[in-house]
Amino acid sequence: MVVGVDGSAGGWQAVDWAVDQAARTGLPLRIVYASLWQHYARRLPAAGRRRPDEHAYADQLLGTALARARTRQPQVPLSAVTEAGEPVEVLLREARGAAQLVVGPRGDGGMVGMMLGSVGLSVAARALCPVVVARGTARNREAADRPVVVGVGEGPGAVAALRFAFGEAARRGGELVAVRAWRAPAGSTRAAGPAERRWAERHLGAVLAEAGGEHPGVRVSAQTVQGPPPLVLVEAAAEAALLVLAVPRGESAHGLQLGRTSHVALHHADCPVAVVPVPH
Fold first, then answer.
1. Residue limits of the UspA domain (predicted)?
2. Mean pLDDT of the chain
3. Could you give the residue ranges of the DSSP H alpha helices within the chain?
């Protein structure tokens, strides 16, 4: 498990969620602070180098993060490191060897009123491991007995998201709520009706059967809901411990590879949001 910290309130939310998740998974937690000063200091003449306030700040920040995580979950193996570079690039490098990467909903440099910071959005859009944005209300972030909600879309992403969600529900001992939104075909002049609902139910049943074999003990609620997927899922996750979504990843790591549903959830969900990358 890897968590990014920056000293912001959102960063501390991420540390708390990440160390709890590390305890659930049995994984060690690596706490990472990205330092632009160290990045540029490598280019300074040796005679001009000194231990600056930024270096002391990094040490203090990581020490505080370690103490906070150790107090919360003393059994979790911890490490902390300052890495030189832009936060997005540092966290994307860390994600290559991580089981999960956790970030806060808004960093220290975020503009007032922004619902998700640029670092969190960029990492969620490009990382090659599952990314969790530790957003939402305190009761949803910290209540392990609340359900895990997963959005079931099309293609291989549906199974990938469900497998991830089944694992999370099993670790929490709670319910899995699998949600498939359905609407009338684009351009249709009639309201969505029985045919669309039946197709959504068949699709949801098929992917649940394919993905749930490893966790037969998990209680499952399958829901087909009429409406736009972003709004349906945000409403379904209002009382959830976690919302899980699949996001396709192309061969290039450049660009924000997020759809409208993921954007809305990452900005508006009342619970942490897990983005599961799916190669395509």
1. 2-135, 146-277
2. 87
3. 9-25, 36-41, 53-72, 87-95, 118-126, 138-142, 155-172, 194-211, 229-236, 260-268
260-268 vs 229-236: helix crossing angle, rounded to 10: 30
What is the residue extent of each domain of the chain? Answer: 2-133, 138-279
Phi, psi of 151 (to 5 degrees): -85, 125
Distance CA 218, CA 192 (A): 32
User: What is the C-alpha to C-alpha distance for residues 13 and 9, in angstroms, rounded to an integer?
Assistant: 6
Those residues with Cβ within 8 angstroms of residue 18's Cβ, 6 or more apart along the chain or in another chain: 1, 2, 3, 29, 69, 102, 132, 134
2-133 and 138-279 in the same fold: yes
pLDDT tens readout for residues 21-64? 999 999 999 999 998 754 444 444 444 454 457 788 899 999 99
Instruction: Give the distance, in angstroms, between the CA of residue 143 and the centroid of all CA atoms in the same chain.
Output: 17
**Global confidence as pTM:** 0.88
Q: Does domain 138-279 have CATH number 3.90.930.1?
A: no
Here the tokens at position 135 are: 């957003």
**Residues 122-142: pLDDT tens digits?**
999 999 999 999 999 999 999
What's the N-to-C CA distance of the chain in angstroms?
25
Q: What is the CATH number of domain 2-133?
A: 3.40.50.620
Contact present, 257 and 160 (Cβ < 8 Å) = no
Residue 225 and residue 75: Cα distance in Å, rounded? Answer: 41
Residue-wise DSSP of 79-101: EEEEEES-HHHHHHHHHTT-S-E
List pLDDT tens digits, range 71-125.
999 999 999 999 999 999 999 999 999 999 999 987 544 433 334 568 888 999 9
